[in-house]
Amino acid sequence: MNPLLAAQIRRQWTLATAGGVLLLFLVLHLLAFQPALRRYQAAVKQAADLGLTLDPDRAPRMMPARVFALLSDNSLPAAAADRQGSSGELTSATLEEISRLAGQHGMNIIAAEPGVTARLPRAVQVRAHLRASCSYREFVAFLDDLNRSGRLVSVDRFTLMSVSSGRQTLDLWVTRYVLKQTGARR
Predict the structure, then answer these.
(1) CA separation for the pair 88, 137 (Å, rounded)
(2) Cα separation of 75 and 176, whole Å?
(3) Global pTM?
(4) Which residues of 19-58 are buried (b: 16+ CB within 10 A; e: fewer)?
(5) What is the tens place of the pLDDT at every residue in 48-96?
(6) DSSP letters along 86-145, please?
(7) Cα→Cα distances 69→23, 54, 149, Å
(8) Please, which pLDDT band fits residue 163 given cuts at 50, 70 and 90?
(9) Burial of 91 by CB count in 10 Å (0-12 exposed, 13-18 middle, 19+ buried)?
């Protein structure tokens, strides 16, 4: 071998070593890491097909447990919700529950009558009208208990009219929502 060439190669031993290490890593990459990468990509694709994701930015939003419990407690199978809405069972149960809450707070019920029941594609709306004699304090306590009842109930409108000292006549319209359970998830 040429002594001049051998001297140059000895001076460039770090470059030759780096080239050798590069070749070693390239072979290792092709033999070990490429198949592992393909397996990982196949697993991620399979998980995505099942609706799972490893990317935190693409993760589906989870419903809080309290909201899930509220929605579950206020839902019925679609056929049962339609049947109970048509037959008046939901209206009767709503009137009974509101009357019971009103009675617990010392409100004197003058009249309780059903309203229109609306059957929507995803819910049933049951309306009711209540007329009672109560004090303002009793009415506020009634609203507080209605709020804490765990039902999807909205107070559509109310009127308080003074009739005697401390007593008022309450005219209250409420709507209860019963969700329909379906097999489809969105």
Answers:
(1) 32
(2) 11
(3) 0.63
(4) eeeeeeeeeeeeeeeeeeeeeeeeeeeeeeeeeeeeeeee
(5) 787 777 777 776 677 788 888 888 888 999 899 889 888 889 999 999 9
(6) HHTHHHHHHHHHHHHHHHHTT-EEEEEEEEEEEE-SSEEEEEEEEEEEE-HHHHHHHHHH
(7) 60, 27, 13
(8) confident
(9) buried
Structure tokens at 107: 């409100």
Question: What is the structure's pLDDT at 186?
Answer: 47
Residues 179, 85: contact at Cβ < 8 Å? no
Question: What is residue 155's predicted lDDT score, i.e. its pLDDT?
Answer: 93
What are the residues whose beta carbons fall under 8 Å from the beta carbon of 59, sequence distance 6 or more?
53
Quote the CA–CA distance of 111 and 186 in Å, as a whole number: 42
